[in-house]
Amino acid sequence: SQQGEEDPQALSIQEGENATMNCSYKTSINNLQWYRQNSGRGLVHLILIRSNEREKHSGRLRVTLDTSKKSSSLLITASRAADTASYFCATVLQTGANNLFFGTGTRLTVIP
Amino acid sequence: DGGITQSPKYLFRKEGQNVTLSCEQNLNHDAMYWYRQDPGQGLRLIYYSQIVNDFQKGDIAEGYSVSREKKESFPLTVTSAQKNPTAFYLCASSMTAFGVAGESWETQYFGPGTRLLVL
Question: Number of C-alpha atoms within 13 angstroms, CB side, residue B50?
Fold first, then answer.
């Protein structure tokens, strides 16, 4: 299965600290995307990084991609209580349809 | 107010019953998707449709059926053949964006989900 694996499964930090989540995948990708899910809600797209990119920023988010290691990381700087959610990485394969293959998620808790 | 909607928010199914989950979008997206999410898990693809009147099986299509008669609508039926239907069901839509170098990508927009419970 192409489904990615996030690490750690759960992360608990104090408000103001940085949070780092990692994602590993198995097959060559076209792009990798990060999504956020608040409890019991739908997913919201955060950021997309293409296979020829190594780093991307969006506000307090920083995503890196290492295609040689088939891994990506999501860094949230200066975390806030409102960042509490589950974060999923999703990959689009290099060949075939543009379907997303989701990882198992990291549950982030930011303590005020 | 553009977006993707799902109804109902909660749905109860009796043994042997078929139930249909609604998904509507007014984003003018061509592609639509149905996912299943189990507690503490990622999303698994049930069915997807790239265009009206066409749909493809995903990873876990058994026990489910879909139709795509209109661009805006992609209903999912959970049939009695699905023996473990209790889950959170998410619908999504997407359209393709193109870069200056000819590359393309899609991001998906999700509905709020329907939680299906078995009585």
Answer: 9
